[in-house]
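Example record

The entry below shows one chain as it appears in the dataset: sequence first, then structure tokens.
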Amino acid sequence: MPRSVNAVASKRRRKKILKLARGYYGSRSKVYTIAKNTYEKGLLYAYRDRKAKKRSFRALWIQRINAGAREHGISYSQFMGKLKASNIELNRKVLADLAYNNPEAFKAIVEKVK
């Protein structure tokens, strides 16, 4: 009895991976096995970097708050400590946005904390 293979499904499976690997350099987008490995590795990077993105944004917010606070003569750690002590519950994202886009409002918060 001849060997039965499902060429239609195999081709569809390969085409799906090659379509997802479009735009990769050289054989990474042309050769199925290399494209598959590259695509799977890309998914791992995407998962990892969704976590790293949160860390890098928090670091950016801290830098912006620190810069805004130091303009008014107070360090970041002192500012955050006094903010908690005076029960002002604004998160770092909002504080950084105020320091960057609305310096007057940020100055009012710093004065209230002092």
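Notes for this example: Residues 82 and 113 are 6 Å apart (CA to CA). The chain is about 75% helix and 0% strand.
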